[in-house]
Write a structure and sequence with these properties.
single chain, FAD/NAD(P)-binding domain, Enolase-like, domain 1, 3 domains, seven-stranded antiparallel β-sheet, 11 helices, globular
C-alpha cells in the first residue's frame, strides 16, 4: 500500500491549494480528483460566470454608445460568446493540467502524485480510489477533504439542465434564451440577471421572496442595483413565493403567490435555479473514519478546518464557512500548516473582502450601515458619490459611491466599507488591510493616491471625516454625506 504524508481529496481551488502547500513542506503528497482539475471554480462557477459578466458589460457599454448615436445595437451571436467562454476556461484548465504534469515529472512522483478517481474513506488513514474498473487503496498520515459543492435543487422541480437549469447547465445553452426566470435574488441570481439582461437578447424575470433584492446589504445598494436591473428590462417579482414550476412543451411555466393571496402564472423559455449550494459529502463515507457532522448539521469541520478526527481536515465549500474561492484556498493552506507546523494562529473570517458582479459591481468589507443599526453600534459614516471623482468622470462611469464606516470616537478606527461602481474590487483592498490592522482614518488620509484614480474618492471620504475635505458635504448634499449614527438616529456632521 502506497503511503503519503498528505492526501487531498478534491482538485478544485481549495484542494489544489492544499496539495501545493504540502509540497512547500517537502512532504509526499497525493491529490485525488474524480472529474476536472479546477472544479467549479473554473468550469461552472467563478471563472465562467465572471467571463460572461465581463463580456456582457462590454456589450452593454458598446450598445449604450451606439444607441446614443442613433445606431443599431450590437448583438453578438451566442456562439461567439460561448467560444470566448470556452477559451477562458481552457486557458485556466491548461495551466492546471500542465502544472500537474510538469510537477510530477520534476519530482519523479516521489513528492507529488496525481490520481484520477473518486476518493472515499475506509478509515482515518486509508483512502479507496475508484476510477472505472480500477480500484486502489492508499494510506495517508494527514487527509484534507475538499470535495466542494453543487447547486441546491428544489425536490418538487425536475431539473433537466436543458429547460430548467442550475449554474451547471449554463454551458449547455445553444443560444440566448428568449426569456428566462431566475429563482433566487441572492448574489448569484442577481449576477446572472445582470449578465443576461446586459446582452439585451433575453427577457429576464427574477423571483425575490423579500421586499428588495440583496436584503443583507444597505438599502442604497439594493436600490441602485435593482434600479439598474429594471432599467435593463428585468422584471423583479418582489415579495413572491414560487408555488410551482414545470416544463410544458418547449416552455417552462411557473406560478407565483403573493402575500395578499393573489397568484400569477408566467411562461418562459428557460428557468435557472439559484438558491445556494450544498456540500459534496455523500461519497466520502465519513462515518467509516468516525467523522461527525458539524454543529451546523450540514457541513463538516468545526475546529479551525479540523474535523473531530485530528488528522482529517475539511476545507472550501465542504467546511460551510464562506463559499468563496479565495477563502477556500486560504482554509486549505491553513489546514496543511496546522498539520505540519507546531503552532498556527487560528483563521479569522472577519473582514473578508467580497465582490458582487452586478451593475455596477459591489465590493464590501467589514460591517455595513444596516448591521450597525441592528446591533446599535455607534459609528460615523461618510459617503461620496462617484460623480465627484475625476477618474469616474473621465471614464464616463459616474454611477456609484463609496461608503466608509468608522468608530464614533476620537480614534475613528475603520470598521467597514462599501464600494459601488467601476473598479470597486480594486478600491476595497487597502481599506480591508487597514481594518485588519485596526487602523484609524489618519493612516488612510496620509496615503498618496495616484491621480486620476477611483481610489482618490476614498481619500476624500477620509478628509470629510477629518473636516478637511475639498468638497463640503453641507454644499453638495446630493453627492456627499457625513453623519453620526447612534440609536438608529442619523445626525449630520456638516461643516464649512
Amino acid at each position: 500500500m502506497e503511503k503519503y504524508d498528505l492526501i487531498v481529496i478534491g482538485g478544485g481551488p481549495a484542494g489544489y491549494a492544499a496539495a501545493m502547500r504540502g509540497i512547500d513542506f517537502e512532504k509526499k503528497v497525493c491529490l485525488i480528483e474524480a472529474d476536472k482539475i479546477g472544479g467549479a471554480g473554473v468550469y461552472n462557477g467563478a471563472l465562467s460566470s465572471k467571463t460572461l459578466w465581463e463580456m456582457s458589460n462590454r456589450v452593454a457599454d458598446i450598445n449604450k454608445t451606439l444607441i446614443g448615436e442613433g445606431r443599431n445595437s450590437y448583438k453578438p451571436e451566442w456562439t461567439k460568446v460561448k467560444k470566448t467562454l470556452d477559451e477562458a476556461i481552457f486557458e485556466r484548465k491548461f495551466q492546471y493540467s500542465c502544472h500537474i504534469k510538469l510537477l510530477q515529472n520534476e519530482t519523479k512522483n516521489t513528492t507529488f502524485t496525481y490520481k484520477r478517481g473518486f476518493g472515499s474513506l475506509l478509515s482515518k488513514n486509508e483512502i479507496k480510489i475508484v476510477n472505472g474498473e480500477q480500484k486502489e487503496t492508499i494510506w495517508g498520515e494527514n487527509i484534507v477533504l475538499a470535495t466542494g459543492s453543487r447547486p441546491r435543487k428544489i425536490p418538487t422541480i425536475a431539473v433537466d439542465e436543458q429547460s430548467i437549469l442550475t449554474s451547471d447547465g449554463i454551458e449547455t445553452l445553444k443560444d440566448y434564451p428568449k426569456s428566462l426566470v431566475i429563482v433566487g435574488a441572492g448574489v448569484i441570481g442577481c449576477e446572472y440577471a445582470t449578465i443576461f439582461s446586459n446582452f439585451g437578447r433575453t427577457k429576464v424575470y427574477l423571483i425575490d421572496r423579500q421586499d428588495r433584492i440583496l436584503p443583507f446589504e444597505d438599502k442604497d445598494i439594493s436600490k441602485l442595483v435593482s434600479g439598474n436591473l429594471e432599467e435593463n428590462g428585468v422584471t423583479i417579482h418582489h415579495n413572491s413565493s414560487l408555488k410551482r414550476m414545470e416544463k410544458i412543451g418547449n416552455e417552462v411555466e411557473y406560478e407565483l403567490k403573493y402575500p395578499d393571496g393573489s397568484t400569477e402564472i408566467i411562461r418562459v423559455e428557460k428557468a435557472l435555479l439559484s438558491i445556494g449550494r450544498i456540500p459534496n459529502i455523500e461519497r466520502l463515507n465519513i462515518d467509516k473514519a468516525g467523522i461527525k457532522m458539524s454543529k451546523r448539521g450540514v457541513h463538516i469541520g468545526d475546529d479551525d478546518t479540523r474535523t473531530n478526527i485530528p488528522n482529517i481536515y475539511a476545507v472550501g465549500d465542504l467546511s460551510g464557512r464562506i463559499a468563496l474561492v479565495n477563502m477556500g484556498e486560504i482554509e486549505a493552506r491553513h489546514a496543511v500548516e496546522k498539520a505540519f507546523l507546531d503552532s498556527v494562529v487560528p483563521l479569522s473570517y472577519d473582514n473578508v473582502c467580497t465582490i458582487m458582479f452586478l451593475k455596477p459591481e459591489v465590493a464590501a468589507v467589514g460591517v455595513n450601515e444596516s448591521e450597525c443599526i441592528k446591533k446599535n453600534i455607534p459609528v460615523k459614516v461618510v459617503k461620496l458619490d462617484y460623480s465627484v471623482i475625476a477618474r469616474a468622470i473621465a471614464m464616463r462611469k459616474t454611477q456609484g459611491f463609496f461608503k466608509i464606516i468608522v468608530t464614533n470616537d476620537d480614534e475613528m478606527r475603520i470598521i467597514g466599507m462599501r464600494a459601488v461602481g467601476e473598479h470597486a474590487s480594486s478600491a476595497i483592498q487597502a481599506v480591508g488591510l487597514l481594518i485588519k490592522m485596526n487602523a484609524s482614518v489618519e493612516v488612510l488620509a496620509e496615503l498618496v493616491h495616484p491621480h486620476p484614480s477611483i481610489v482618490e474618492g476614498i481619500q476624500e471620504c477620509v478628509r470629510m471625516l477629518l473636516n478637511k475635505s475639498i468638497f463640503k458635504s453641507s454644499v453638495f448634499k446630493d453627492k456627499l454625506a457625513c453623519y453620526s449614527l447612534m440609536d438608529g438616529v442619523k445626525t449630520p456632521l456638516e461643516r464649512l
